[in-house]
Amino acid sequence: MDLLEDEKQSLGMDPRAARPAAKIEVGGEEQVKERVPDARAGAWIEAFWLDMRYGARMLSRTPGFTAVAILALALGIGANTAIFSVIDAVLLIPLPYRNPARLVTIEANQSLPDLSDVAAQCRSRALPVSARRSCTTS
């Protein structure tokens, strides 16, 4: 605004008339705030609090909806926490064994010749007795 006032004075306008003319051209302070709301410092904080107040007012007008919304959020957060806890305990935490990468999974539907091949190639005594029959140890 000061720049516009200086420009008007440099064009020959009376200094007392330049300030009101600059205000009229730019518009009032509130109009500028409305046109450029994000340029002000702290505008987002003000908008956040306005939104929070509006939300609280709307929730207080419909207590049934508020109760259902809070219950749905509580159930959702609780279920999410429970599922993550199970997945964390089962999948994400490493196994409490030495060299867990060397563990082998033997499925129930494998045939006896397959188990014999696994036992023949192993070098450990950690296999069950039935699979260890032909296991060579060194």
What would you say this structure looks like, in words?
There is one protein chain. With 138 residues, the chain is mainly α. It has a domain at 97-138. It is built from 6 helices and no strands. The protein has helices spanning 2-10, 15-26, 29-35, 43-61, 63-92, 112-121. Helix 1 packs across helix 2 (15-26). The N and C termini lie far apart (91 Å). The model is unreliable at 129-138 (pLDDT under 50).
Compact summary:
This protein has 138 residues and is mainly α.
Main pleated sheet: none
Provide the helix percentage: 55-70%
Structural class: mainly alpha
Proportion in β-strands: under 5%
User: Got a strand count?
Assistant: 0
Report the uncertain regions.
Answer: 129-138
Number of helices: 6
N- to C-terminal distance: 91 Å
Radius of gyration: 38 Å
Elements, N to C (H/E): HHHHHH
Mean pLDDT, to the nearest integer, reads 78
Q: Judging from the principal axes of the Cα atoms, what is the shape?
A: elongated
